[in-house]
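Record type: monomer structure entry
Structure origin: computed from sequence
Chain ID: A
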Amino acid sequence: MTQPNMILASASPRRAELLRQIGVRFVVAPANIDESQQLGESPADYVVRMAVKKATAGYSRQASDLPFMGADTAVVCGEQIFGKPSCKDNALYMLDQLSGRTHQVLSAVAMTTGVDTKVRLSTTAVTFRTISQQECLNYWQTQEPLGKAGAYAIQGKAALFVTHLEGSYSGVVGLPLAETEQLLKHFAVPLWQTVSP
């Protein structure tokens, strides 16, 4: 087995796949943290705080010299943060709110070695066409909205809803790769390596 060069403090299979795509060798050690938004906290501040908290919480619990990466993604419609839907009604509400509108996807990535912590934020504008109630229901029944910020996966069937995107596609998936590369270079984590799936 090849030696990892970093630890991903996330259980997201999408983030892991994006890291493999750019040739990063890593292991996964999810950080379980309180993800509540603080009173008066802006969506951007929230996403940045979550990414940093995941990275630092993961680092503090592991006996490793490897850098830890944390990431967080939120869909923002108006000033309302849409996280992962808690139930069918919650998912259908989110999809209805996103229908026919442009929303923001904020994706933050952070890395830490315990003494050095860096974070980057990506903001992407995504426009949905009008989605009928039946389409929302059909989409829910695919189970794809489960565990996805904003109740949709742009890399899946929800691609049918998107008419325009301005910013980072990978950030909408869950890990903005341009910003991630900046951090990987800062922490001297090699890229372009052969990695096993």
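Annotation 1: The two ends are 12 Å apart (CA to CA).
Annotation 2: Helices lie at 13-21, 43-61, 88-98, 133-141, 169-173, 177-186.
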